[in-house]
Amino acid sequence: MTGRDEATLSPGDTIGVLGSGQLGRMLSLAAARLGLKTHIFCPESGPAFDVCAARTRAAYDDDAALSSFAASVKLVTYEFENVPAHTAAFLAARVPVHPNPFALETAQDRLVEKTFINGLGIATAPFAPVDDLAGLVAALDRLGRPAILKTRRMGYDGKGQAMIRPGDDPAVALAAMGGHAAILEGFVPFTREVSVVAARGRDGGFAAFDLNENEHADHILSVTRAPAAVAPATAAAAMDIARRIADALDYVGVIAVEMFVVVENGVERLVVNEIAPRVHNSGHWTIDGAQTSQFEQHVRAVAGMPLGSPRIRGRVEMRNLIGADALDWRALMAEPGVYLHLYGKHEARPGRKMGHLTRVIEP
Ligand code: AMP
After folding, report:
1. Is 219 in the pocket of ligand 1 (CB under 6 A)?
2. pLDDT by residue (tens digit) across 172-194?
3. 40-59 as b/e, with b when 16 or more CB fall inside 10 Å?
4. Ligand 1 atom nearest to 189, measured from its CA
5. Within its chain, how far is the Cα of 245 from the centroid?
6. Which CATH code for domain 192-361?
7. In angstroms, rounded to a whole number, what is the distance separating the alpha carbons of residues 326 and 156?
8. Shortest-distance atom of ligand 1 to CA 188
9. Cis omega (within 30 of 0) for bond into 227
10. Rounded to the nearest whole angstrom, what is the distance from the C-alpha of residue 123 to the centroid of ligand 1?
11. For domain 126-186, which CATH number applies: 3.40.50.720, 3.40.50.10190, 3.40.50.10860, 3.30.1490.20?
């Protein structure tokens, strides 16, 4: 089913969401504000299960469970990109799925994704597919060192990645891929990491939030600041890249495009790292710092409602609360000017995203 002739959702209608993490939770809360309900489908229970109108805990290949899920919702969206292709196709045959399965497939595989982006005339890191050690050695000869070997699929927060520096044994990096198909990427000597979070509506309308500047710690997003401290022309170019990608995917919903800023001869240049076909951690500040949050914007887009204003309220900083960071919640809550968000996860395991906080410095 396509989005073209679909009915707009009305208050009281239910959106199906694949995935029960914090993104699904914040989507559910935003949907509720617009009078919509969510039905969360996930093999594991998670933070979204606490705030939805209906929940199904079943495997992604449980066709009976998927059938009744599809029958109970007006459309399906997802909060993470590793939804199996079968699940997306099975649901799309029964109910509208936004973003469409093509966008999902493109973003799921780093090789397909980079090939697609280069096909639009947009720069990525140089890359080569790697199937075995001989292929890796040949790719290293071509791309040079340092280079980063990544699994083509299922990577997130730096998982399934190995840096290969001069002198490193490529066989060790290949072994770290656990036998999965891989891609070698040339190292991009970036000065900043930025991301565009934007929405595209069913009618092709496009609304981007201000450019995010992202800092990582241990491969996990730590801080996002917006607007990013780049030249206005760079921010405009980033928006244009995101728009071209969203148009080419015939995308409906919120998309995030992560990019590197490289400075050459004093001029900033953008290199796309990856696409997230969903709401994104670097857009969490929009709940408190923009006129419409990314979660509400996603709900509006998939539901066929008008997009809201993405206008930023000031200078914004979002900090993730990872693992034990969240144990300080009482002190954080007492800090003036802090908007605290906790995801309701019981165990503060290292590396686990437990919540985030936002500060807005109003002009
Ligand atoms: P990814 O999982 O592709 O988002 O990569 C995680 C992080 O590794 C990025 O946010 C960058 O900090 C770094 N990284 C990934 N790919 C490259 C690259 N080709 N060159 C330089 N740094 C990279």
Report:
1. yes
2. 999 999 999 999 999 999 999 99
3. bbbbeebbbbebbeebbebe
4. 21
5. 14
6. 3.30.470.20
7. 21
8. 20
9. yes
10. 15
11. 3.30.1490.20
Residue 156: pLDDT band (50, 70, 90) is low
Does any ligand 1 atom lie closer than 6 A to the CB of residue 144?
A: no
Q: How close is the Cα of 314 to the center of ligand 1, in Å?
A: 29
The finding on whether 124 has its CB within 6 A of some atom of ligand 1 is no
- Domain chopping of the chain, boundaries: 14-97, 126-186, 192-361
**Strand 220-226 relative to strand 212-217: parallel, antiparallel, unpaired?**
antiparallel
pLDDT tens-digit series, residues 317-338: 999 999 999 999 999 999 999 9
- Pocket test residue of 111, 148, 214 for ligand 1, highest count of atoms within 8 A of CB: 148
Q: Tell me yes or no: is domain 14-97 CATH 2.60.40.10.
A: no
Q: Are 168 and 234 in contact (CB under 8 A)?
A: no
81 in contact with ligand 1, CB cutoff 6 A = no
Report CA Rg, the chain.
20
The conformation of residue 300, written as its DSSP 8-state character, comes to: H
Is the CB of 86 within 6 Å of ligand 1? Answer: no
Q: What is the pTM of this model?
A: 0.97
| Gap from CA of 47 to ligand 1 centroid (Å) | 28
Q: For residue 40, what are the β-bridge partners? A: 17, 55
